[in-house]
Each structure stands twice: as structure tokens, then as C-alpha cells.
Fold MIP18 family-like domain-containing protein.
Amino acid sequence: MSEMIEKKSQLESDVMHTLEHVIDPELGIDLVNLGLIYDVTVVDGDCEVKMTLTTMGCPVGDMLDKAITDAVLEVEGINHLNINLVWEPAWHMNMMSRYAKVALGIHE
């Protein structure tokens, strides 16, 4: 996660940091630590968040969409947001950070 942030612009890093405060209501862990955010790109104030969900039928998808939109559009310098929901690569538990795994009681 931190490696991706270092290679990004400051604005992209700010968006990623903001997404660390968007909590999956079912799991109680933020989207970044869950490994659901694949990429953040900002060009001229237009932001694209490439992400996935834990399952295709995720019942909180709409709620997350609103929470992400509200959070990202609060970042100074972001004028527009496009959420690019993808299913490849498919999400799996190994994409979670150590923090998320410990918080959820997953031991490797």
C-alpha cells in the first residue's frame, strides 16, 4: 500500500488517504486495508478510483459508492470522480493488509 502511495502524485496520495477513512459497514475495516482499492488516478481534477468489492452481490455496494463519492469529492483539488468497479483481479483475503487480517482475526 505505501509503495503505491509513494509513486503517486500528492493529490492521488491525498485521495488514497481519504479512502482509508471509508469503512466497509459489514467488516468494520477501511477499503484500503481490505485491499479493495486497486488504483487512484487524478488528471486535471478528475479522479478515477479503480476498485472491487469482496463479492459481486455485495449488499452494501450502493452505500460504499456514496461514501466513496462523498469522501473523495471533499479532497481539495478533486472536481469529479469516476468509480471504476472491476472484477479482475478477483479480490481474495490475501489482498488485505496485516492490520485488516489481525482486526478480523485471520491468522496465517
